[in-house]
Amino acid sequence: MIRPSPSHRLLNLVQTMLILGGMAAIAWVVLGSIFGPEVTVLLIALSLAGLALAPSLSREFLLRGYRARPLGPREWPEGVAVLHELARRAGLPRPPELWYVPSQVPNAFAMGPPEESAVCVSDALLRLLTPRELAAVLAHEVAHIANRDLWLMGLADAMSRAVSVASWLGQFLLIINLPLMAAGAATFPWGALLLLVFSPTIMALLQLSLSRRREYDADLGAVELTGDPEALASALTKLERLAGRFWEEIFLPGRRIPEPSLLRTHPPTEVRVARLRALAPRRKMPALSPPRAAPPAGLQIPPPPGFRRSGYWF
User: Fold this and answer.
1) Where are the domains positioned within the chain?
2) Of 30, 46, 140, 232, which is the most exposed, with the fewest CB atoms less than 10 Å away?
């Protein structure tokens, strides 16, 4: 199982609770100022109920949207075997389902709670990475599932969206009441006005901070599961290089988000790689056979974007 040190667990818990607590406090103040405490409590209860029911619904919707197909032992036995071993080491109640995304963008992502999770890998990722790197990427996604990061990020996103809607509604009500305020028949506290204007931005920054924190922990969890920090560092380097950074530096110098930045969903790749390479190798994963040179049987890569009368399609 993933067993970080007690000090790391405590620090991680404190940081996560501070971020979520700050977001919850802002959400309570903003929603309460617009809807009142009774309606705010009702909205919170409905949001929590939605989070409890959303994983299975959103999972099926997303998989259908990505045109994903399940990958079983017959299509990719090496990947399924490694994913099952990673799930066993992480202490998951059941192995995640493995899905194939017919995309030419190298990507992997997880969805669902530990009891009903799935890991998706794109065709481009299977072609790009070596067996060791694929095992490390799968371990990163399994660590997200084991840490329940998907639920935490869903909670943060729900609070952020609620505050954004309340902020826009509050500003709309303020504009409607401007004639009354100009006539002196109504007043509006400036503190509340500033909170309505800036609360969505603050919530977004806190949400991004939480996302970066969870990525660092998933990196550490992947190393705990594979004992191979260099494999994940190598995979991250390849993905960063292929993501277009090289060409952006040539054709769009200075257009990227400055480093370091609060406007990132993921920490800078250079920092993640440096942290990984600072870790000593731990236990080794069983050998993973090389992935197939072509997509698994029966699965096709979609054609590149083409132009139709309705516009570009993917």
Assistant:
1) 6-296
2) 46
